[in-house]
Amino acid sequence: MRDFQLPGRSTVYATGGMAATSHPLATLAALEIMRRGGNAVDGAIAACAVQCVVEPQSTGIGGDCFALHAPPSGGVFALAGAGWAPAAADVERLRGLGLATIEATSPHAVTVPGAVAAWEALQRAHGRLDLGAVLEPAIRYARDGFPVHPRVAFDWRRAEGRLRASEAARSAYLPGDRAPEPGRVLRLPRLARTLEVLAREGAEAFYRGALAAAMVTSLRELGGLHEEADFAEYAPEWVEPIHTTYRDVRVYECPPPGQGITALLMLHILEGFDLAALDPHGADRFHLEAEATRLAFRDRDALLADPRRVPVPVEEMLSRAYAARLRRLVRPDRALADLPPPLLRGVGNTVYVSVVDGDLGACSFINSLYDSFGSGLLCPRTGVLFHCRGRSFRLDPDHPNAIGPRKRPMHTIIPGLAFRDGELWACFGVMGADYQPVGHVHLLTNLVDWGMDPQAALDSPRVMAWPRELSVERGVRPEVRAELARRGHRVVETEVPHGGGQCILVDRRRGVLVGGSDPRKDGLALGF
């Protein structure tokens, strides 16, 4: 495996508009759409649609999405494109089928995909172009072919076993019965045809009619409980974003069932420490970040669920008094012990898109299949690869995140925005399942406390203190690892890097946009 920790990007400056994504073809698509008159929303959807083709291990139209949009006129809008469980799904029914947990490759892990409906809702409300126009680049790559990039190929190889479990997925994504090597040109004709239908007919075609019927049929043949009504009656939700201040920055996240509140709670815990006085890559910084992670994730796993169905104590979790109580548990010389067992495991796969247009409108956009290639289950007639978001449900009827009819699971994907002096300052996100709130905090503290530019903040080595071990990247120095182990952390080196992120800062003093893209992925930031 190549060393993903070596900085591989340079800081990018632009004045006309900027996009930063985890894939270069997606970044180019966003710029293409903005040059054709689109705004940040149009560019973000176009980029994501391309990633659904060229990064199939990370995202797809069979997944979910969340977005934060800050229009030039002011305000912040949040859209939750989290799909729900079938109406027939509940704990008793699944336990009656002999299930103790919902495995990622089970049809019961497939909630109704929310992404396509969310794309259209976001664009109708805040875009300049129509859905057909912004889907053109994605259709072109799916129909005519795209070259497989190195990090995509690396992830693809790791997922061969999951793809072989489904004949339809194997046929589409393992040409010659193996993952494609870097540089191979691949075509996805069935997905291209489905995207062409969406371009002509809109999201309605995905949730009602022939496409929906085909997807429901394929899921039911695999043992799923889905009905066409589960698709037809689904709609994304405009929600009120949650926010807090960290130092002099106001940070916005999407509310539960997303885990953005976890990032805000971590920031509250860390604001009581003088991080700027510490080595940003030293043991003290990583120790404090790890302890904040463990405390906040303990609450995440116990409390986060669909607020339409169960009460989620958002105000209490965001209270400074509560964070102060948690902060008092942190010892500077010793790791905490006796935390509860985790809910979620594994490395998630997601794409994040950051776009700021020439009018300083911003779209922070994230779209996910959850695991690599999601459930690995593919609808043979539509080419839609289904996500596995429902695997985060619990089969404990007393838990807030227990599966239920038309209920949305606790969600890991979170976009972020930050403001200074009441004006847009940063459009950012860090993908990577459980790691995402930690990535938001790591990036923001790098920017705010240590004054790093976006690229340096993204290059910075990362650690993850959940579920049990302290998983460190190769860039963490040996003496730092040793000191963290001395303080009681179970230090292990991660096999793959922690997530990947993008960030665009608005530098109003100089009149430029400043962008960075994570070297852990294939992408880049570009502007004009």
Give an overview of the whole structure.
This protein is α+β, with helices and mostly antiparallel strands. Strand 8 and strand 9 form a beta hairpin. The chain starts with 11 loop residues before the first strand and ends with a strand. Residues 1-7 and 340-347 have low confidence and may be disordered. The protein has one domain. It is globular, with a radius of gyration of 21 Å. Helix 1 runs antiparallel to helix 2 (40-54), helix 13 (260-270) crosses helix 14 (283-303) and helix 14 (283-303) crosses helix 19 (478-486). Helix content is 35%, strand content 18%. The strands form four sheets. Strands 1-18-17-13-12-9-8 form a seven-stranded antiparallel sheet. It has a seven-stranded antiparallel sheet with strand order 7-4-3-11-10-2-19, covered by helices on one side. A three-stranded mixed sheet has the order 14-15-16, with helices on one face.
Structure summarized in a few sentences:
By secondary structure, this protein is of the alpha+beta class.
**Which structural class best describes the helix and strand composition?**
alpha+beta
The tally of structural domains comes to: 1
Helix content: 25-40%
| Biggest beta sheet summary | 7 strands, antiparallel
Total strands: the figure is: 19
Shape: globular
Strand order of the largest sheet: 1-18-17-13-12-9-8
H/I helix tally? 19
Low-pLDDT runs: 1-7, 340-347
Cα radius of gyration in angstroms: 21 Å
Average pLDDT: 94
Distance between the termini: 34 Å
